[in-house]
């Protein structure tokens, strides 16, 4: 089993033809008599999340669920995500469901990692057109956890953008993104060699900075820091999205039905920033390891060139 977390690789499983919608009668006064007025006319998002979770958990795989309601009758469309997808939420990039749905859900089934160890876990996150979200977390033999707050991250963003809803603003700057990529490139040049790693000079580091022309003159740490800082003043996540529009590759598979829209229309700034950063390693520990590996002078020049860390 693969790790599970919205934005992480999906549970690998063989492709299964997408089933059609299957009706599921939510308990009604006729099937479970209760005093008049004791139940709302329509199921809440928490009830819908429970229903999706109950239907999906036995399948033990990643799914997209489309939910229609008519009074208290609930109709679920469960679409298994094949292993062609790079990550569970990525199947929603550019996709908008048919009009008239009540809610959309992502189910991720896999292994959980943490300081206390890991094990199987199934997570269901459901969002409705009003923006309300409910999460169900279940571990075998453990208590089922229900969360009302909207989770933060690329998975919740994908649900909201598929529904045409806004997402929180970016939490990271473009400069932080560029410097995170730079540190990753440096680490990839150094660490695969282990103890036999060649010594890296400032010229080696500067040449692989995303803003530096490798065939041009080597910038000083101060001039590189100025160029990186200028990025935040002169550009934005929206402008980067416009530049990359035709280069954005979605998962290659999408839920059945609905329609596709251009990435510039589907993403907003917040969702785009978290999609770009979803697989970027935490730069802080990478930087610390690099400073331990580089000679003191080169390490100091690296620190002088950074503006966001």
Shape: elongated
Class derived from helix and strand content: alpha+beta
Strand content: 15-25%
> How far from one another are the termini?
35 Å
Helix content: 25-40%
Q: Give the total of beta strands.
A: 9
How many strands, which pairing sense, and closed or not: the largest β-sheet?
7 strands, antiparallel
Uncertain ranges: 1-37
Total helical elements: 10
SSE pattern: EHEEEEEEEHHHHHEHHHH
Quote the average pLDDT: 82
- The largest beta-sheet arranges its strands as 1-3-2-5-6-7-8
Number of self-contained structural domains = 2
Radius of gyration: 23 Å
Describe the structure.
This protein folds into two domains: 22-162, no CATH class; 174-305, no CATH class. The chain is 32% helix and 17% strand. It has helices at residues 45-56, 154-162, 174-190, 202-207, 221-234, 237-244, 263-266, 269-277, 283-293, 296-305, and strands at 22-25, 63-70, 73-80, 95-96, 103-112, 119-128, 133-138, 145-147, 259-260. Strands 1-3-2-5-6-7-8 form a seven-stranded antiparallel β-sheet, sandwiched between helices. Strands 4-9 form a two-stranded antiparallel sheet. The model is unreliable at 1-37 (pLDDT under 50).
Q: In summary, what is this structure?
A:
This protein has 10 helices and 9 strands.
Task: Describe the structure using short key phrases.
7-stranded antiparallel beta sheet, 309 residues, alpha+beta
Task: Describe the secondary structure blueprint for this structure.
Elements: E1 22-25, H1 45-56, E2 63-70, E3 73-80, E4 95-96, E5 103-112, E6 119-128, E7 133-138, E8 145-147, H2 154-162, H3 174-190, H4 202-207, H5 221-234, H6 237-244, E9 259-260, H7 263-266, H8 269-277, H9 283-293, H10 296-305
Antiparallel strand pairs: 1-3, 2-3, 2-5, 4-9, 5-6, 6-7, 7-8
Helix pairs in contact: 2-8, 3-5, 3-9, 5-10
């Amino acid at each position: 089993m693969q790790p599970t977390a919205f934005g992480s690789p999906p549970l690998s499983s063989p492709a299964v033809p997408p089933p059609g919608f299957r009706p599921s009668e939510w308990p009604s006064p006729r099937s479970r008599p209760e005093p008049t007025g004791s139940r709302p006319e329509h199921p809440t998002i928490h009830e819908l999340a429970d229903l999706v979770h109950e239907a999906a958990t036995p399948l033990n795989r990643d799914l997209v669920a489309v939910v229609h309601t008519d009074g208290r009758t609930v109709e679920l469309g469960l679409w298994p995500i094949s292993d062609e997808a790079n990550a569970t939420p990525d199947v929603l990039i550019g996709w908008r469901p048919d009009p008239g749905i009540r809610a959309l859900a992502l189910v991720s089934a896999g292994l959980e990692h943490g300081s206390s160890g890991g094990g199987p876990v199934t997570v269901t996150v459901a969002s409705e057109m009003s923006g309300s979200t409910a999460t169900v977390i279940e571990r075998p033999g453990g208590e089922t956890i229900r969360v009302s707050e909207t989770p933060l991250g690329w998975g919740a963003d994908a649900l909201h953008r598929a529904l045409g809803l806004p997402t929180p603003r970016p939490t990271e700057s473009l400069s932080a993104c560029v410097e995170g990529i730079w540190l990753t490139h440096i680490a990839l040049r150094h660490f695969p060699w282990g103890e036999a790693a060649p010594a890296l000079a400032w010229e080696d580091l500067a040449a692989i900075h995303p803003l530096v022309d490798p065939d041009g003159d080597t910038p000083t740490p101060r001039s590189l820091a100025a160029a990186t800082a200028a990025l935040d003043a002169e550009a934005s996540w929206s402008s980067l999205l416009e530049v990359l529009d035709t280069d954005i590759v979605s998962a290659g598979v999408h839920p059945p039905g609905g329609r596709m829209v251009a990435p510039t229309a589907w993403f907003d700034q917040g969702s785009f920033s978290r999609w770009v950063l979803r697989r970027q390693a935490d730069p802080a520990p990478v930087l610390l390891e690099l400073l331990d590996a580089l000679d003191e002078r080169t390490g100091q020049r690296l620190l002088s060139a950074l503006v966001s860390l």
